[in-house]
What does this fold into?
Amino acid sequence: MSTVTTAPAPAKTSAAPAHPPGHEPVHNYLLEPGPGPDVKGFARVWPTVKAWATTVDHKRIGVMYLFTVSVFFAIAGCAALLVRAELMNPDMDFLTADEYNRMFTLHGVMMVFLFIVPSIPASLGNFALPIMLGAKDVAFPKLNLMSYYIFLAGASLAVYAILSGGIDTGWTFYTPYSDTTNTAVLPMTMAVFVAGFASILTGINFIVTIHKMRAPGLTWNRLPLFIWALYAVSIVQVLATPVIGITMVLLAMERLVGIGIFDPALGGDPVLFQHFFWFYSHPAVYIMILPAFGVISELMGTFSRQRVFGYRAIALSSVAIAMLGFLVWGHHMFVSGQSPLSSIVFSVITFLIGVPSGIKILNWVATMYKGSVWLTAAMLYSLAFIFLFTIGGLTGIMVGALAVDIHLHDTYFVVAHFHYVMMGGTVFAMIGALFYWWPKMFGRMMSETWGRISAGVTFFGFNMTFFTQFILGSQGMPRRYFTYLPEYHDLHQVSTVGSWFLGLGLLMVLFNMIWSLFKGKPAPGNPWGAATLEWTHTTSPPDHHNFHRTPLVTHGPYDYDVLFSGDGYGGDGAGTPAPVPNPEVGGPQEMGKSVDLGLSQPKPKHD
Amino acid sequence: MAVHPAPITFDDPHGGHGHGDGAGHPPHLKHYFVSSEQQFDASKLGMWLFLVTEILLFGGMFVAYGIYRSMYPELFTEASTQLDTVMGAVNTAVLLLSSLTVAWSIRAIQLGNKKLCFWLLVATVALAGMFMVVKYFEYTHKFDLGIFPGEEMVYAEGTTFTLPGLGEENFGPAVDEHAAEGDDHHYVPGDHGLTNQRAGLFFSIYYMMTGIHGLHVLIGMIAIGILAVKTWRGKYSAEWYTPIENVGLYWHVVDVIWIFLFPLMYLI
It folds into this structure.
């Protein structure tokens, strides 16, 4: 048996509280002891650069990932705006057909492999996961840093592929066209292969950390739902990514030495490539959306001031989606000539995915019922998520139905469907998560007012852009065409104008972040009154090692009443109050201090 | 779950907040782990997960093998006669033996016998090297015969093709280049007796699977070589041998993959 000692509350004196050496409140993971005033120029910057480039701190790696994926999101987003602008009119305005092909491929490949796949897990997951578990770091910190550099290497290859002419295959690289096109398929497939390694390493790190490094008392049934979601995601990453790796190697060898495995001229089968590709890429859409589910669960609990309804159902439905997600890849191939029987089976399993997804949505809505819903910017984004993801999910069921899919296959309907899920789902959830965790990451509050306005603008722009595409698709507008028939003109114009609103909304988020870093109000330890460890037991921003003392977890992640009234369970069965976190490092006590954030939510009662 | 040898306080395994003082915990224990036990469990779980990804990596190629075997059974029957069963069997024996030596080396270090562990690791590297040498002879022999993957496959002169992808350029050169150079070999490219027009497909799969497996053997040789050097320098002991255990696991997986490759390619 291990003995667990809780932190004795230090006696409060009138003097400044004693801090362990090197852990004064100003000391956190973002700050390094700076050089003296006599050091000038490059030598002033170099130690900081070096410290960040060689860091094994999961928080810094998370921040570096956040910055990197944001850059790729911006580039790929600009490509999307260009694609939309070209589609304003059916003529070739400023992109030739060939350039158009390369532009949408750039958008697709970058968004999928360099932004969405690593987006929430590698940035926010890396930052929050060990703290939420009460651990000092992930299980393999060096591997974590390595995964970041591998990701950078893969991204460099992708950038090289784009600079050396780009590729025009679409993000799906279908053979035999990808065998024969003269564009830079080889570096791009290698980019996907290398970036896949980064994904695998992150997945392994998370699974091991969740299994082995939870704080005492943090049982599986007390894990925050974000952790459950990341766990499910990591399983998918570990199991699916190697398959895309070998597929890309085979495709590269096909181009290099003509091995012919996907080449019908040599007896190979191009449909096999589609099977291999979707065996990864369908589970990959769950890599993209499951972390968003986790984020929404956190936000719903915190901002409804209420225990998340159906905790276990939400947790296990994440795992169910991860498992079922491996059995539905054939629904991308209904018109590829696969056997009708397998099409029917894939279609049925696709419908089944709707069950755990529906469970989640109903539980989130039920969480808000009779809660005190606090409409912060983060909450507005998660409400937008629920709205948009429901549309995206239901249209997914529609295109999963065989007969309907024959009509809608490769039309704008499919484009609109996955943008509702990926953009309206994952990106909205990620922005919500950024509003939520930003104070913890950087110690500054973002502007709530502008956050709420941006939520409105993005929501409006998003629907204007993509809802029109549902209509376009149902009328037969095929995807990936640079031109179209005159009857589609009006809706295309609406969609393009919508994309400008969407871009404007996202720019507002970006400026809000940058503004907050310089002018934002300093964040208290727990500005939202959340009950998970990263809020209750660390400062904003957290210390280098997250915690001075490993926390002892005695309640669930959403037991707000227990946490803030102190009438709960001390874990010893004697009815003693729940252990009070160390006041030096923030926590509920800090909420009593009058930090006026201009937020309207009444402060929770505490003693 | 093993019982912790001594009571552990979760507060701080370092004693105070000191780092680098080395007091209170063994040098191999990273500061973010509570105990050696936890660190060992974590490393091993991580290694198992990595091995799962290896299985899936090869899984894709095994699927390709299965599909094409069921599509063209006569191709696989004919083309596999080109593979030397004796050499394959020797390699199987060599790899099995190397699995024994690596497992034994883990046992040796668990018992604290660093010298034995070192020599067993060296033996493992030597056996892996032997495997690669045999593989080298197998490959070069096929290259001499003009057996290349996919469209590079060289057929005997006069073979007629109906598949659209195989054009004139695939006909073997009429001149025996090796003979002209006075080489000992007297193989003529294309002189392998294969007439199946899809033979290139079989050898694509063969070269990809055995090639990537060979790459894993090479990586394993490097890893085990590094372990051997570190063992010689006394880095590992009965208290801490996690890297040897993990690389050993990796080596067994490389072995197991070959156990499947050998019958699929050479025997059936």
Notes: Confidence is low (pLDDT under 50) at residues 1-23, 171-180 of chain B.
